[in-house]
Structure formats: structure tokens, C-alpha cells
Specification:
This protein is of the alpha+beta class. The protein has one domain: B-lactam Antibiotic, Isopenicillin N Synthase, Chain (Jelly Rolls), CATH 2.60.120. 30% of the residues lie in helices and 19% in strands. A hairpin with a 2-residue loop joins strand 4 and strand 5. The protein is globular, with a radius of gyration of 20 Å. The N terminus and C terminus are likely disordered. The structure holds 2-oxoglutaric acid and fe (ii) ion. The site of 2-oxoglutaric acid has 11 residues, from strand 7, strand 9, strand 13 and strand 14. This is Fe2OG dioxygenase domain-containing protein. Pfam families: 2OG-FeII_Oxy, DIOX_N.
Length: 360
Amino acid sequence: MAILASDIPKLSALPVISLAPWLNPHDSKGRISTSAALHAACLQYGFFYLDVSTYVDLEETAELERLAREFFVLPQEEKEKLALKYSDGARGYARLGENVTNGKSDNHEALEFLCPVEEPDKKKPLWGENQWPPIPGFRERYEAWVDKMKNLGMIVMEAMANGLGMSPEEWAELRAQVDDSFWVMRVIGYPPLPSDYDGHSCGAHRDYGCLTFLYMDPTPGALEVFVRQAGLVVRKQSPLGPPEEYVEEGAWVNADPIPGCVVCNIGEMWEVWTNGLYRSTLHRVVHNGSSYRVSIPFFFEPNFNALVKPLPAAIRIQEETPKPKTKYMHSLVPQKPYKPTVYGEFLLKKIARNFKKYVD
Ligand SMILES: O=C(O)CCC(=O)C(=O)O
Ligand SMILES: [Fe+2]
């Protein structure tokens, strides 16, 4: 069914949430409202802007972007020296088109970094060493960013635990599942998407972990988020799986960069923790502009061995929620409870699909 842009009801833009109260030890009132805003944003969108302007310096992200560009303009043979195959198949440089989503090559190149492991062994999936470009300052700056994003992850997790009404004991239990995050960081370069390209800059997908913090350069109109809205059918079939499982109602909306903010979205592990109360949201990148776009998503993930299962706090909310009165109302309670998942096992299965030449 073809739908014209003018047919689409105006969907509100994604919420902007200030994290300042959680960065300030004295603002307990502000913390409650930030946590409530996070809860509402996760229920409705699974995607929001996090205003981190008191935590992240604009110069810091500008420098990360500059270093990324310094790498991407290198001759191809220089970049290939860091190819994924020289590590464990997941760490290093993925050339243009190497990343595949929904069976199609994505029109981007990227540097991929994962949490360092003890006793690395590149023959074991995910267990190799990171490959850092020999660009002065690159590793230092990016490692400092990793530390900052890991710390941010713990802060946002605590704020979300509050938003779900978790007790201090419940939060301590959840905290122990993410306090040694098996993080992933991607430094992505997007050339303009050729008009006849069979695929996207980055195909529609859901992030699979816990929290994504995305820094992106100022290019507008590239990142798109699928906002579910009952009654509005824009897409009958999902590219992600059997149509009957994924028929969704909603529309693609732009998530353009806002200075001082990172875009934050929740991954599939939050879906499990909340027994489907929060949903991991589809997004994609369609970069039709003429610039070379750079984005740096940081994936704050659970610990490798974390056993992720529905949280009692989420079940309490579902039990208190009245059943939807019409078929157009989104049910907060899934048909079946979500199954417990060991994060590392889930990750190994997911990542194997992303690379054409994955080392087994
Ligand atoms: O580049 C972006 O804006 C988004 C990238 C993304 O969604 C991902 O790497 O998972
Ligand atoms: Fe993503």
C-alpha cells in the first residue's frame, strides 16, 4: 500500500531527556522526573535524546570525529591492514559493504571495537584483540570515550531502575549484571548512498543489547526510527522475519542530531528484562546527502555471562496494567513470558549473521 507523506499524521519528535539530575548528587527531585521521563520514553518509543551537555564536551566529540575522518581518508590498503580477519572476525576494519543487514550489504565502512578479554585467542569468536589505527591520539581518545560511556551506562541504568520502581535490592541485582559490560563501539563512515543502491546505508535493525549511546556528526536526515503508532499502517511487512510475527503499525521518523545530546535507544536485553514492556525499536540509516557522514555508536551491554530474565518490577507493572480495550491499543503484556537468556550466548548467535566471512 503506497502512503503519501501528507497522509501521515504528525508524530511527535522523540523526547529529549536531561540527565543532569543524575549527574548532580543533590538533585533528588530532578532525579524522580528524569526517571519518570525515561520510563515514559521507553514505553512509547524505545528511543530518546539524552542531554549530556554537562557531561560531554563538544570539543571531545569533535576530536573523536576528526580522528575517525583521519582514518577513513587513508588509502584502502592501509585500512585493510586492520581487516576483521586479522583478529577474531569481529574486531577491526569492516570495509564498505562488508556489514550485512537483512541479507543486503550496508553502504558503510567501520572500525569495530569490543570489550578486551582475558587470554585473547583470535580463533575463538569475539575473543581476539582490538586493532587500533596507528593514528596519534586515536587509541587514547577513544579509550577515554569508552570509559566515559561505560560510566554513563551505569548512571542511565540506575535512573531506569528507579523509573521502573525497583527496590534498592532489585537494583543491586540488576547492577551486578551490567557492572562488567561486554561493550561494543563502532566508528562508522557513510559515503552518500548511490541512488540505485540495493540496500541502505545501514539496514533496518534492532540493537540487541542493553543501551546504545550514539554520537553522530551534524548530517541531518540520515538516521530514521520506526515509531509505532496504532492504526497507522505504513509497512505491512518487516524485513526482519516472518511477516505474521512482525506486522507493525507506525512510521519512520528522522532522528536528526541535537548538539549536546546523544541518541539513546534500548536493545533486546531490555525487552527481556521488562518482559516486553519496553521494546527495542527498529531503526535504519538512509544517507542520501552529499557529505561523508560519521557516527560513533557505543553499545553498553550486559556482562558476558549475565543471565537476563524478566525483572519482578516489570512484571508488577504488567500485572497492574488494564488489558487493552481495542485491538489498536498496544498491549504491554506479551502472549508468552520472555525466556531467560545468557547475554554472551545470544551475542555469539547474533554477530555470526552480521559478517559475510565470519571466522568460526
Ligand atoms: O549510524 C547511525 O546513526 C546508527 C548506527 C546503528 O544503528 C548501529 O550501528 O547499530
Ligand atoms: Fe543500531
